[in-house]
Here is the input.
Amino acid sequence: MAALGLRGKSLLALLFACLLALLPAAAIGWMALQGAQQYFGEAYARNATLLNRERIRAPITRELALSLRLADSEVTRQWLLDEDDPAKRDLFFREAERYRRDFRDHAYFLASTQSLAYYFNSDSEPFSSEPRYRLNREADADRWFFSTLRDTESFNINVDYNPALNTTKVWFNILVRDHAGQTIGLAGSGLDLTSFVEEFLASGEPGVTPMIIDINGAIQAHPDPALIALNSGADGSQSGEGLSALLGNGDEGRLRSAMLEAQASPGSVAVRQVQLDGREQLLALTFVPELGWYVVHGVDLDSTQVIEGRWFLPLMIALIGLVTALVLLFIFAIERLLLKPLRQLRQGAQALAAGEYDVKMPSSRDDEIGELSTAFGVMAQKVRDHTQQLELRVSERTRELEQANREMASAHKKIDDSIDYASLIQRSILPNRELVNMLGERHAVLWRPRDVVGGDFYIFRNAGGKCLFGVVDCAGHGVPGALMTMLAHAALDQAISDCGLNDPAAILTRTDDIVRSMLGESRESQALATNMDVGLALVDLDQRRLVFAGAKIALYFSDGVEVRQLPGARRALGDKRRGEYANHELPLQAGQTFYLCTDGFLDQAGGEEGFGFGNGRFAEMLRAHASLPLAEQSKAFSSTLAAYQGEYPQRDDITMLCFRFD
Here is the structure.
């Protein structure tokens, strides 16, 4: 019979020790688990419910807050009061589109109580400013609207299927009221029900059933969509027996008492033992007062593995005792079978580590130790050969790396020099000297590229008592954006030369033609963003009037009391579809300050939530500082933006041109 190897001897000793330890350990563990199961299950249910409550509350509260802001917007209110006004319609949809980008599902709706028109826009379908359909009081699909008007004081959160849109969502229905307090419409957003359930209610734990019920007990969200009580959030007459139908006989009273307990102490968790889906389970629920929802978990202790820390102590004491005995037995076996022969091998290895590669290991054993000794001798010879080769390779590679580092440093310097030179060239096209010579303290400029160079620039022309001001925002940032500014500047120069200063709209149209001619109809120009936003304002000092035309850039003006604006056209220059540009004229009045600004200022992220600066905050900033000298206004605008931006990085190039003629 062949001699038993070292591995076999060690495994036999360990197996014997394990057998001695496993029997008492299994008995002790069984008794401890039986006693702890109920306690651990209740603690697990509480923790899981609180965790899911926080996961749900944050995004729902955010969507609700955005919906409330949309419904409370003066733009929304004014348009619902006069739906036939095209200017108010255009202003509303421009503002609503900004909200849509911030909503989680990128969707919003608006319904009018006067015309019963239902408007809806989302990423999944083309934008439309026309009603999707008209609400019908007799239609079951529209019952949510009339129920909300009848039973809701401010808002409700309703799960419902919209057949016209073919979508089931968690809807945020917000009442829109006029200044007299009369309801004039509903506005809000929605979260796709399937995505909502998968993201916030999906549980990978077996035996755990998360769900949401409303204050009447109707199921609002459940892993099984068939159990959800559609339209229960908007219809105040809903009986709310959804969860009760899943409980056993006599458990409805336990559910109601748990709901009252959780509602009386928001943030706490009420736990009851009930029959749920025919199985004995723990039912844990907590109340979210701002949503009017209960977050509920059903935990089947027979399927869920739960533990808690304080039960570890007795188990660990028993386990440590068993492991100690096992280790002692194993040490005894290893000492005799393994450690003693390995000491001899260690002495040879130490000599090898000291550089004595000719050392010879004992090889008289007929097991793995003997094989290892022989392998050490072979290894010593290979290590010596490989060490010499490695030293040569390291020396060669070091020289190569040093050369590569020198080449990289040289290339990096060339790139930096090129970008700095590009910045110098870009700054040379800015009319700073002309503005200072012509206007002096009657103008101010805030020009802040996101990188060293950028896609924004501004222009100024003066001839015969007429001044042309303009700001341009080219697509792209950095070097690509800077190259676009060169093209845009040349196109504007040519357009002004062709059209003169008197017609800003004609200059925009001519510039659009020139840009399209420069870029051609190549596949590359169609695939890349080559459009540009432009705002041009002509000031006729002799006739005391201002003429403005814009392509996605508006002209703001303020006398320190109110802020007004002349909007630009909806199409940028060089867009896939051509735009139509028109002149807007207004008289020059003493005390008015005019502002041209690219969207980098309005879109800059900041604040606690990282939202964009926004039109409302921008208008208030202009109104608050419009009476100051322009140099002080520029400093105030810069400090206001920096304070709002905080630690957030600059998103886009920022250009703002201010001028005043008293």
In short: The chain has a mean pLDDT of 84. The longest strand covers residues 167-177. Residues 348 and 361 are 6 Å apart (CA to CA). DSSP finds 15 helices and 23 strands in the chain.
